[in-house]
Specification:
4 copies of one chain form a homotetramer.
Chain A (H helix, E strand, L loop, with lengths): L7 E3 H7 L5 E4 L2 E4 L2 E2 H4 L5 H10 L5 H13 L8 H9 L6 H10 L8 H17 L4 H14 L18 H13 L6 H14 L10 H11 L4 H26 L25
Helix pairs in contact in A: 4-9, 4-11, 4-12, 5-6, 5-12, 6-12, 7-8, 7-10, 7-11, 7-12, 8-10, 9-11, 10-11
Enzyme class (chains A, B, C, D): transferase
GO cellular component, one term (chains A, B, C, D): cytosol
EC number (chains A, B, C, D): 2.3.3.16
Chain lengths: ~280, ~280, ~280, ~280
Amino acid sequence: MSAAADTPMTRGEVGDWWATGVTRIAPGEIELRGYPVQDLIGRATFVDTVWLMLRGEFPDPARSRLLEAALMAAVDHGPQAPSIAAARMAATCGVGLNNAVATGVNLLGDVHGGAGQQCMELLADLRARHDEGAALDDAAGAIVAEHRGQGRYVPGFGHRFHPRDPRRDPLLDLVEKAVAEGVVEGRSLEAALALEAALARGRTRPVPMNIDAATAVIYAELGFAPELGRGLFVLSRSVGILAHAWEERQSGARIKGPLPRSVLAGYTGPASRTLP
Amino acid sequence: MSAAADTPMTRGEVGDWWATGVTRIAPGEIELRGYPVQDLIGRATFVDTVWLMLRGEFPDPARSRLLEAALMAAVDHGPQAPSIAAARMAATCGVGLNNAVATGVNLLGDVHGGAGQQCMELLADLRARHDEGAALDDAAGAIVAEHRGQGRYVPGFGHRFHPRDPRRDPLLDLVEKAVAEGVVEGRSLEAALALEAALARGRTRPVPMNIDAATAVIYAELGFAPELGRGLFVLSRSVGILAHAWEERQSGARIKGPLPRSVLAGYTGPASRTLP
Amino acid sequence: MSAAADTPMTRGEVGDWWATGVTRIAPGEIELRGYPVQDLIGRATFVDTVWLMLRGEFPDPARSRLLEAALMAAVDHGPQAPSIAAARMAATCGVGLNNAVATGVNLLGDVHGGAGQQCMELLADLRARHDEGAALDDAAGAIVAEHRGQGRYVPGFGHRFHPRDPRRDPLLDLVEKAVAEGVVEGRSLEAALALEAALARGRTRPVPMNIDAATAVIYAELGFAPELGRGLFVLSRSVGILAHAWEERQSGARIKGPLPRSVLAGYTGPASRTLP
Amino acid sequence: MSAAADTPMTRGEVGDWWATGVTRIAPGEIELRGYPVQDLIGRATFVDTVWLMLRGEFPDPARSRLLEAALMAAVDHGPQAPSIAAARMAATCGVGLNNAVATGVNLLGDVHGGAGQQCMELLADLRARHDEGAALDDAAGAIVAEHRGQGRYVPGFGHRFHPRDPRRDPLLDLVEKAVAEGVVEGRSLEAALALEAALARGRTRPVPMNIDAATAVIYAELGFAPELGRGLFVLSRSVGILAHAWEERQSGARIKGPLPRSVLAGYTGPASRTLP
């Protein structure tokens, strides 16, 4: 009754469907991007290995430190973030800790986890306009005007909670230092500062970079593709998601909803009615 | 550089790794459990098809009606359930509606979605003790005592919110009618009633069956395996999860957390401190 | 140390953050869109309840039958779909059946589960062009030309596996009958047929509607919003996902990967190398 | 129509429902376990921050290095693992990179991701038996006999693919060195070696520790709770999941199933049949 034709094929043909350049295994052997894993254990740092796995080569120490700072800075922003809250609730529902973490990560979508990626795309756009001859400030002003005209936020700027995100300054200080030392080029930093200035022009209240733009600057300076901006944020925020899920697990709470049981959700639907 | 040996194998060998008895496809053909899909469209109901897919054969109409009632009864219990709340939050994070539904379903774990399955296992245990000669009331009393002795809830009985779950009576009425008509045997109903009576003995407040036990009785009478009790609940509650995610999507909210922004989560950790 | 201000607020204020028009609960009461749940059990079908929960009112029987047929038709397409395969693999990894279903649902994204939604948007676009005075065939031809010009598929037409999807004809027959009986208007059916004709013009091989377009026609004729096209597909395909996860669970397999253990994934990365 | 009573409550009461000891935020302030985030950026490593978030305090450098080695060692084992394969498939379905990572993490359940946690529980059990006076070898032999008697694997020992897991030796070398330097006590290492010896006694083929036991030894020596063994593995393997999802994303594949389209899944169900 098999629907599969019985013409021969090679194992290689089938294996090619799942071929990868990331990791090679054979009995007794595991190589990550060509490096035998036993050569790396105790020698390669975790952050260097993140870079190796995503990019194919190890970074130099100065670049690795920048990546490390960005990953460290975004680990958590407390339980009012829906990703954290959902993971905490999951941890009380009788699922594995991995399922709780997955629940949180699943919420880091375009709106909740995508601002860094979108900001990286914006920085690339601004650098491209600059390359084509536009003055940086003019091009930044045009981008801000385009967003405002469409009623859209400029991703990575302003924060609904912090007047000035406390992670902005120390991250940008590290980038400035790296530029001064020739570690990175500094063009994404310049682009982000130009956008920040354009957002402030003619306004009484500044709209400073938040964590998304500050890490976007770092990831862009390090040459990561914008979509990996989201990916790196996922790795970073997974630490906070895990810490919160674990705290909730230890509390012993069961089926934790968003509100204490004594507070009922409001109701806005039709009044009680009967079937005809 | 391929690690896959090039010894020939047949497509059948590889296809067998993914062999299934559920659905057969070939170009221009789709058969569900042997039935060409075009013969079923417009003729088989959705609930009959659920049964077919899970059990391999279609149910008779009377059994199908019982399954339909159980699936219908459990579609929703409002946004205070963590599964619903998490799906609503997901819907504001810039992920697809499918990701929001998956988020809710992911939370229907042992504690939040598993009581029906556990109750089905308990009913099977009680029926087995009865088969081995114990009086039903004695065996039910023993099971209740065992749970109380271990400080455990009897799954499917009592509700942290409803003194009496409004879904209990109409569901059990349907089962009683089906027993009277010879549609189902009634042994799982008897077992559940015996547990309910045992829980009430010597107490001033009854601990009546909730939706989990009422649907567990139906699924058990219909011959579903206990683990499918969880599976059927997932299908049922997916309706509520989708309805709530959709309502939230239409609201246009962005990054909805568990609390309004004006209310801060409390903090129980160490006071502000500095690195040495 | 609490960061939450101690200014009083009402429970209503907090409850309003989670207010909903879908379901109202109070001790001993559950109302779905205003209907006490006990009035619906044994009277409302599952499919009618899906409609009620998503739309706020019950459908008439003829419309409900159309919805039922569409939900039934799309329950499964076998384990080669990534959603099904991922759910089957999940079922062997020691997670709950709900986590396995969530894994499958999570994969029904824009590309794997979104064609119906995109087709509904296309039908709405075509109807709008028609309303603005364009001949239907001309407007359909223009849309096809636009897609071809951008190298894009027309969502809902053609199938990478079936020369003619066996679900197309019986679903469209039901719509035609419903149009003849005045149950639905038929404008989305006309639009879809016009697109099908436009795709065939000047080609030797037709590109007939697949399941996504056929169900998109039904959902559009019934007045569902395009995004709910995805939502309804999720409910429908959840049946197949559950059936496959359950079949895999019963097999007792552990940590099932995509390939039998004897077949190794190919490797395309760098040759073995050492740290400096 | 609000179901929420209008008795006043304080914001603190509601905030307490979400109270946490992990992170405190206030406008312009973010503190992780009491440390202002701006003091940590550029100074705390990512791995130290993982420790801080999970344990509440920073580790000393020697302990941090052990944690780093364990996290680094388990980042990937190739696309034949269901977690990796599912994430790769997800990446072709039109969902966000975060959803693809969540899909992979969701599969790291009791069977696929839980062996480390179970091994940590076993090591704790063996240490406890030793504390109660049993000779370590006797107690290890008893545990092995218990598992064999129940037909169960001893979690963390043996590998279905590697005769000897290449990650075992370098990880245990690091632990031995740390014991020699007084960094950790060495009791979990002794326990694991006793189990390995007990598994080998009277057998011709050894059953050496795999990555799960080797990392379990480290996490146990560092004082992590067993369930965090799973949590730390999730953080580690997320790197491989992300790298593979990203590789697949770059391939441009759409709706990648487990088999090439030319190979059909086998079918084991009933022959074609018709409705009566």
